[in-house]
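Everyone, carefully examine this protein record:
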Amino acid sequence: MNNKKNFLKISKTLIIAAPMLTVLGVFGATAASLKIIAKCLHLTYNEINIIVYYLVIPLTWCMMIDRQLPILTTLWIALWTYIIITKRKFFSKWCDTVFQLSVEFLLKFQRIGWDYWTASVIICVVVPILIYMILYLLI
């Protein structure tokens, strides 16, 4: 009887822990990749995070949409050119501020039961992948 109870207890623990291990694995792999890229480009983690999630990923979406509406890429590049020119003297500080605002945004998902790591994976990995898939199917 004890073996059966132990098995059920272990099974319940694994069922609860498995999704979290996956979330932490995806989060860890993503963060590690960004840290490697940041080091190679002599940038901080916050800088590369903002560049990837606020510039590069949306830029690729604009490029995909531009097949149908050829102006978004130009507008996106113009916006980021403006940001870089006006923030160049304190770009790192600006990235730190935007990164902190992003963290605060992700923490708001605690209201629906997501911790920071879960919200990060869903909002920063799953949602962009879904957007790529939708754009690929529609364009």
Remarks:
- The mean pLDDT is 87.
- Helices lie at 2-40, 45-65, 72-87, 91-107, 116-138.
- Residues 2-40 form the longest helix (39 residues).
- The radius of gyration is 20 Å.
